[in-house]
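ok so I'm stuck.
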Amino acid sequence: MKKKLLGALLGITMAAGLLAGCSQAKDNGGNTGGAAAKANTLSEIKDAGTIKIGVFSDKNPFGYVDSNGKIQGYDVYFAKRLAKDLLGSEDKVEFVYVEAASRVEYLKSAKVDVILANFTVTDERKEQVDFALPYMKVALGVVSPDAALITDVAQLKDKTLIVVKGTTAETYFSENHPEVKLLKFDEYQEAYDALLDGRGDAFSTDNTEVLAWAIQNKGFTVGIESIGNLDTIAPAVQKGNKELLDWINSEIETLGKEEFFHKDFEETLKPVYGDEIDPENLVVEGGQV
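replied:
not stuck anymore, here's the structure
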């Protein structure tokens, strides 16, 4: 990865096994098939002694299952701290594996109490769920093979762009670039496999993630470092679950005083990015962008 590319990205950019105590829950395209159910309140979560948090299992380095079958990542690190501060132990979290397109429905059907799956805040999603304060900044990026590097959206005309269903990348390209053919997958691993297999010309998702993936996969480069809106990532709860939302907001503000998310970055993201990314261009502390 060239320094120039990394520098450009930094200037604007704000990932199956089971872990003991985790449960794996996925569906096809996000259709849970269940009607809206009442979410657990903060008091009910405390009484149950467990908090159910939806995370990715295949989005390295934000939420993924490692080679030892353990769930890891930036979002996971945060989830464990929520459980520790709310219930006294990080082991009190039950991880539920979600796909991008299923995040809203898992909240609506009360299959999870909180979503911490790299969830970008959008106006459309705000109508369906309640977002807490942000903890990360992000934009979209496009990664492609060095042998046929995509450096401009115009190059994607009549080509195939890989996206994951239910992501801001799918929405952005569907609404703004109908001339680009989209190849859609439910899971991130499926999308990356398709890129590696040459079933698509490029892949678009959060630029923080495609940068990390390109660093780990030689022969690929993030040719479009930033596209679309500059967005934030935040926890989400079922709409109207004010008690839980207020507690999470208070927790984020408190964690900001100890620069928790900088510690999270050091533990989970720096091993991937190295010294090439300034955490100030990604981390949000205390919910203040």
